[in-house]
Amino acid sequence: MNKTSASTTSASIPPAVPPSAKKPVGQRIKEFVTDYKRQWEIQSMVLPGIIFMIIFCYIPIYGLTIAFKNYTVIDTLSTAPWVGLDNFRIILSDEYFWDAVINTLGISFLKLGIGFIIPIILAIMIYELNMGRFKKFVQTISYLPHFLSWIVLGGMLITWFSTSGLFNELLLNLGLISKPSNILLDAGKYWWIATLSDIWKEAGWGTILYLAIMAKIDPTYYEAARIDGAGRLRQIWNITLPNMKAIISLNLILTVSGLLGSNLDQTLVLMNSQNREKAEVINSYVYRMGMTQGDFSYATAVGLGVSIVSVILLLMANKVTSKLNDNQSVL
After folding, report:
1. Where would I find the ABC transmembrane type-1 domain in this sequence (predicted)?
2. Where in the sequence is the domain holding 54, given as residue range(s)?
3. Do 59 and 134 fall into the same domain?
4. How many domains does the chain divide into?
């Protein structure tokens, strides 16, 4: 076949078109209705979830307009006067807001650097245990704090960190301090208290997904590695961790996207007048400005800005992790 006939033949072949694109809209709607009638019992189970999302997730989006208005409790969403970007200009010049941003990022990066790694290590340690009963005992003990509210755990921490509490008694007996003090009143220690207490509460629960993935790894991989002389650490590095790469990437994306969303419950329980300068995070700042001081427009503007930045962080983290997973996104 010469070049002329080849080009003519290739030109005569129409480009591939998805089958759904060839059908008129009316026919596609008719097919959708037919499919729905055939599986209406199963399809109807989705309707409550859709209705819930519309009522509680999509309709409230209209309320974000008060970020661009001067809204008060005597106004409605439609009667409140528009102020444009004035609320956002106030945010940029508010030193208390930037103090909350610094505290949020400091605590979040500590949680990311320490709290992200510990569940992976703990999951591998639990998986490597051979004693069945002891393995279940360790899992139960590590999961337990997750099911306790921050009100309960916060009360425990407040008691333990008091002048006559467990930690002061322990440090005195070890000779590490000469005089007891209330640790929660020391603002310089708050970031570490928030980080380590959050890890204590959530590390065990964070192992569930990792253990589920490790349970699906083919045991023959480990048998072949042992035959080749690989020890446990080499098996973990070459078999366990590569098989966990996707779920680790997914958790990393979600963690990075939530860097500006520190735990509000934890902050409200552990924050006091003495450590506020290091304990105030963006979420508690928004809560205080909106619910305590009644500045709803300003609080909404802060929340909207944080949400936009969180979406950007989510996309950036997804882009980076996709590069580490052979350009395959886990989202």
Report:
1. 101-317
2. 24-68
3. no
4. 2
- Clarify whether residues 58 and 191 are in a common domain: no
Higher pLDDT, 60 or 20: 60
pLDDT band at 1 (very low <50, low <70, confident <90, very high): very low
- Look at residue 19 and tell me if it is in a domain: no
Considering the domain boundaries, does residue 8 fall inside one? no
Closest CA to 280 of 199, 197, 194, 202: 194
- Give the long-range contacts of residues 200-204, CB within 8 A, separation 24 or more: 200/145, 201/145, 201/146, 201/148, 201/150, 201/153, 202/115, 202/119, 202/145, 202/146, 203/115, 203/118, 203/119, 203/122, 203/142, 204/119, 204/122, 204/139, 204/141, 204/142, 204/143, 204/144, 204/145, 204/146
Q: Are residues 215 and 299 in the same domain?
A: yes
| CATH code of the domain containing 141 | 1.10.3720.10
DSSP letter at 204 equals T
pLDDT for 312 equals 92
> Which residues, including other chains, have CB under 8 Å from residue 52's CB and lie 6 or more apart?
none
Vertex 204 angle, CA 258 and 185, to 5°? 65
How confident is the model at residue 21, as a pLDDT? 52
142 CA to centre of own chain: 20
Which stretches of 23-147 are DSSP H helices?
A: 25-38, 40-44, 47-53, 86-92, 95-110, 117-128, 132-143
pLDDT band at 89 (very low <50, low <70, confident <90, very high): very high
Question: Does any domain span residue 75?
Answer: no
| Arithmetic mean of pLDDT, 216-234 | 90
Question: Band of the pLDDT at 18, cuts 50, 70, 90?
Answer: low
Q: Evaluate whether residue 4 is within a structural domain.
A: no
Residues 279, 270 contacting (CB under 8 angstroms): yes
- Does the structure show a pLDDT above 90 at 41? no
The mean pLDDT value for 154-161 works out to 92
- Burial (CB < 10 A; 0-12, 13-18, 19+), residue 201, is buried
Q: What is the pTM of this model?
A: 0.80
99 and 58, same domain (yes or no): no
